[in-house]
Design brief:
Blueprint: E1 2-6, E2 9-11, E3 17-24, E4 33-38, E5 45-50, E6 57-59, E7 67-72, E8 77-82, E9 91-99, E10 102-105, E11 109-113
Parallel strand pairs: 2-11
Antiparallel strand pairs: 1-3, 3-8, 4-5, 4-9, 5-6, 7-8, 9-10, 9-11
Amino acid sequence: VQLVESGGGLVQPGGSLRLSCAASGFTFSSYGMSWYRQTRGKEREWVATIDNPGAGTAYAESVKGRFTISRDNAKNAVYLQMNRLKPEDTAVYYCNVVWRRGNYWGQGTQVTVSS
């Protein structure tokens, strides 16, 4: 299993970013996918999940209404559209899949929200 995140960067408060995660090594369309984030000194925090058909989504309260998770099964990719970003959204964002009882993570992509 390989997960590769991209799309992070520096953005001003109120701005937007779109994160991407390219997946390989498993039957992507059969598994739910999630995004997590982590800031230094804190535990990794769940952000959003999308089910394997892509019809069901769930969000942490802190991002609900601002972030949107989506997937493209033809491209084996999952996305996180982040709007109205706040300084407290600053973190390393990770893509995640639970596959055959194993928990898999990408290398992460840094998102910094600052003026």
